[in-house]
């Protein structure tokens, strides 16, 4: 079912902010986003996705949306995970472009302006945390996960864990979705024939709340997900229509030609 057009269609950019138990960050987050919107390179709104928070995040989101006319929210019935929250947000976005940022403020909303100009040439512009402000153990985990991913799927991405990205909405909606897919945006965009630009951005230590990542969801799950993405890369369908008469007129003189790896092996 296609979602009904909503107020995000009045803007050029919708900033998706998944939130799960971030009540300590919400006041600062709302303030920073509200200050950024008038300075954004494209007319922008914010869409909070409350991913089944069990603290006071939901009430704070509603209050922020009541205060700022360019703030909107959706609430998921239960905690479904980051990828599901992003998918829900993308399904409710009707602006031509969308952005993604985490609620922990370890990346700066203002630096979305570093990424937005690249959307004229690229389908995805992704931030790279040039100076990670995490513990040594977290940096090691990320280094291992990124190295394994590059070896397996050869996407060339230096930092898929950076939660600062902008892309075309139509491209985002065309991506195959699965749990954990948020780690593979560059590879999945490339799978659709899209181009990816990587841009260095700032990174800050978490000052409130707690990280939702564990050793399992930072290392083990991504390793398994890499196998799924590699499978999709090998099995993707490609075809090209050589002729058609769907717009009326005479029938084509030769039959439509289409080819795909799947057809050849069926």
SSE layout:
Blueprint: E1 13-19, H1 26-36, E2 44-50, H2 57-67, E3 71-75, H3 82-91, E4 97-101, H4 112-115, E5 124-129, H5 136-153, E6 164-168, H6 169-174, H7 185-191, E7 196-201, H8 215-235, H9 261-265
Number of helices: 9
Strand count, sense and closure of the main sheet? 7 strands, mixed
The outline comes out as globular
Cα-based radius of gyration, to the nearest Å:
20 Å
| CATH H-level superfamily | Spore Coat Polysaccharide Biosynthesis Protein SpsA, Chain A
The secondary-structure element order is EHEHEHEHEHEHHEHH
Strand content: 15-25%
Low-confidence stretches: 256-266
Helix content range of the residues, please? 25-40%
Rounded mean pLDDT score: 81
CATH architecture: Alpha-Beta Complex
Number of domains: 1
State the secondary-structure class. alpha/beta
For the record, the CATH class is Alpha Beta
CATH topology: Spore Coat Polysaccharide Biosynthesis Protein SpsA, Chain A
Topology, number of strands: 7
Query: How are the strands of the largest sheet arranged?
Result: 3-2-1-4-6-5-7
Q: In angstroms, what separates the terminal alpha carbons?
A: 30 Å
Walkthrough of the structure:
With 266 residues, the chain is an alpha/beta fold. It has a single domain (7-208), classed as Spore Coat Polysaccharide Biosynthesis Protein SpsA, Chain A (Alpha-Beta Complex). The protein has nine helices and seven strands, in the order E-H-E-H-E-H-E-H-E-H-E-H-H-E-H-H. The chain has helices spanning 26-36, 57-67, 82-91, 112-115, 136-153, 169-174, 185-191, 215-235, 261-265, and strands at 13-19, 44-50, 71-75, 97-101, 124-129, 164-168, 196-201. It has a seven-stranded mixed β-sheet, sandwiched between helices. Helix 2 links the parallel strand 2 (44-50) and strand 3 (71-75). The longest helix has 21 residues, at 215-235. The chain is globular and about 55 Å long. The protein starts with 12 loop residues before the first strand and ends with a helix.
């Amino acid at each position: 079912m296609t979602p009904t057009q909503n107020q995000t269609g009045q803007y050029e950019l919708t900033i998706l902010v998944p939130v799960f138990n971030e009540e300590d960050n919400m006041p600062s987050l709302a303030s920073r986003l509200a200050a950024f919107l008038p300075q954004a390179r494209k007319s922008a709104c914010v869409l909070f996705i409350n991913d089944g928070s069990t603290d006071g995040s939901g009430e704070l989101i509603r209050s922020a949306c009541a205060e700022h006319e360019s703030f909107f929210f959706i609430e998921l019935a239960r905690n479904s995970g980051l990828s599901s929250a992003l998918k829900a947000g993308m399904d409710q976005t009707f602006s031509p472009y969308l952005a993604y940022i985490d609620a922990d403020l370890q990346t700066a909303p203002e630096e979305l302006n570093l990424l937005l100009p690249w959307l004229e040439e690229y389908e995805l512009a992704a931030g790279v945390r040039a100076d990670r402000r995490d513990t040594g153990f977290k940096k090691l985990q990320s280094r291992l996960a990124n190295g394994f991913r590059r070896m397996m799927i050869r996407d060339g991405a230096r930092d898929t864990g950076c939660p600062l990205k902008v892309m075309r909405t139509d491209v985002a909606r065309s991506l195959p979705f699965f749990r954990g897919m948020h780690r593979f945006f560059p590879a999945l965009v490339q799978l659709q024939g899209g181009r990816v630009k990587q841009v260095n951005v700032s990174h800050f230590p978490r000052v409130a709340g707690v990280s939702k990542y564990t050793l399992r969801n930072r290392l083990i799950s991504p390793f398994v997900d890499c196998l799924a993405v590699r499978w999709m890369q090998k099995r993707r369908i490609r075809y090209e229509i050589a002729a058609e008469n769907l717009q009326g007129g005479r029938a084509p003189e030769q039959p439509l030609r289409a080819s795909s790896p799947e057809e050849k092996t069926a």
